[in-house]
Amino acid sequence: MYNILVCDDDKEIVEAISIYLSTEGYQVFKAYDGMEALSILKKEQIQLLLIDIMMPKLDGIRATMKLREQSNIPVIILSAKSEDADKILGLNIGADDYVTKPFNPLELVARVKSQLRRYTTLNTAEGNKRQTQGELLIIDGLTLDNESKQVSVDGEEVRLTPIEFSILYFLMSHPGRVFSTSQIYEQIWEEEAIGADNIVAVHIRHIREKIEINPKEPRYLKVVWGQGYKMEAPKK
């Protein structure tokens, strides 16, 4: 059973989401502001956070930023704001997905399942068994161990979120090949890529900031203008 924390200052929304998630067999914890959410996250083993942006005491943006200082659990932001700038802000501070209100509860549940599947695949022994055992990808000083789910650059470990690891693993598995943002999105999120350019671009930027010495002059993850992204092939 997975533990999911739902945080929104609208108690009716929290109750509605809780009903749908409980029906799917999830254990639901409830919070009504960012401070309460962080308190629960410290006490309980939470596998996914659903959090609203506009809340009293501590909003969803700042709460997510604090969470990301110590945890890589999936975060899905809920908000009435649907503009791209708001979505990008949510992703920039570490959220994995963004759902606008009003939302279809069944779609929300599907997104929760997708994020949990990716998280458990990358972080549990059971998930590791579903991956290729002992697979080690190396491109010059960049190393990705698909069994231990660890990434290092020149011997120093790099901490990635599940989404970032999935993107990096996908690109490193096909060195030198260019993938469009739509291809990357559909491979990682397992759904049709509609307006996915910004989402992929934000996650790519996060990966670069973690694996590149100089993100503006990337050594590994490169842009092919007008086409997409590629992982540089190993030097011979």
Your description of this structure?
This protein is an alpha/beta fold and 236 residues long. The protein has two domains: 3-125, Rossmann fold, CATH 3.40.50.2300; 132-231, Arc Repressor Mutant, subunit A (Orthogonal Bundle), CATH 1.10.10. The chain is 43% helix and 20% strand. The protein has nine helices and eleven strands. A five-stranded parallel β-sheet has the order 2-1-3-4-5, sandwiched between helices. Strands 6-7-8-9 form a four-stranded antiparallel β-sheet, with helices on one face. The chain has a two-stranded antiparallel sheet with strand order 10-11. The longest helix has 19 residues, at 105-123. The protein starts with a strand and ends in a 5-residue tail after the last strand. Mean pLDDT is 85; it is low at 124-133.
Record keyword descriptors for this entry.
single chain, about 240 residues, alpha/beta, Rossmann fold, Arc Repressor Mutant, subunit A, 2 domains, five-stranded parallel beta sheet, four-stranded antiparallel beta sheet, 9 helices, 11 strands, globular
Helices and strands, with pairings:
Elements: E1 3-7, H1 11-23, E2 27-31, H2 34-43, E3 48-52, H3 60-68, E4 75-79, H4 84-92, E5 97-100, H5 105-123, H6 125-130, E6 136-139, E7 142-145, E8 150-153, E9 156-158, H7 162-172, H8 181-189, H9 197-211, E10 221-224, E11 228-231
Helix pairs in contact: 2-3, 4-9, 5-7, 7-9, 8-9
